Amino acid sequence: xxxxxxxxxxxxxxxxxxxxxxxxxxxxxxxxxxxxxxxxxxxxxxxxxxxxxxxxxxxxxxxxxxxxxxxxxxxxxxxxxxxxxxxxxxxxxxxxxxxxxxxxxxxxxxxxxxxxxxxxxxxxxxx
Length: 127
Known about the structure:
Blueprint: H1 6-30, H2 37-57, H3 59-64, H4 66-90, H5 95-120
Helix pairs in contact: 1-2, 1-4, 1-5, 2-4, 4-5
């Protein structure tokens, strides 16, 4: 069950948006318009996985707890890396645009994680 205390919600927010922004920046710096979109997406995905794992196991785990952070951080990293990597392979992407896109993807991951948790842990209605 996902923590609902404000400190942990803030931790999920920072983990998701921060990881997404960092991966977006790295993907935009590493992948250029000369790349094939599928290759850019695959490289961005691997970068996101590695960055999400490293951030989740080091800095974020110490501050907010491992189980609360690993899913949102890694998923945000993977999705941000795929999206920004594919976009950067098709056209030039500014670093600000890459970071904001990654952060928005991270926010979406957080919202999705909390909504899925609410759905899976709801009490069944027995009329």
